[in-house]
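Okay, any thoughts on this one?
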Amino acid sequence: MEGIFREEIETHRMDKFFCDEMGRQVHRYIKAMHGSLAMLEKFEARLRQMDIPERERALAFYIDLNRKVIKGMDWRMLIARAMANFCDSFGYFQDMVRDEETMNFYVERMQEKYVRYHEVVEENGKYGIKDHEGRIIIKPAYDFLRTPYVYVDDLRTMPIIAEKDGKMGLVLLDYNETVVVPFEYDDISLRDEEPWFELNKGGKITLWPEK
């Protein structure tokens, strides 16, 4: 429609309002998956500490690891809700929603922000991980990787379980492959509560991280 155009203030506010909607989408997902109230409170407390670009990255990472969050989600509906928060009149809201160029612009913009899936890669029988842009996060040098990444609902990222030369360890997803637990364990398993990892070395069980 003539008169509908995009400028910096609009796109920034739309980013903010859509981010709020996506936060609610994840909130509903955690609740539907029978997450605890404490889990929800941690999740929302962490989001409140972030600015909008940080929230977008955190939510995109969460969605990458919990892809059912957006399964069947109506992108246009969430965008329409963001538009409703942006508009100062019902008439202008109708104009924005009905303008296909504007709607398509925001669908593409938000999907680029929030659909950023990692990929497990194999090379010569070894496994690694690439990010959504094809950059190497973990080099293909491991016999086993536990994926998706270990992730908890207060938005803290955790290391992944990896196997190398027959031994298990924990590696951070920091593009530097920082080893936080050395490759000297017979088995490492994920727990449902802190401490998040159970380490088994010769039948001796320890927990990580230590409280």
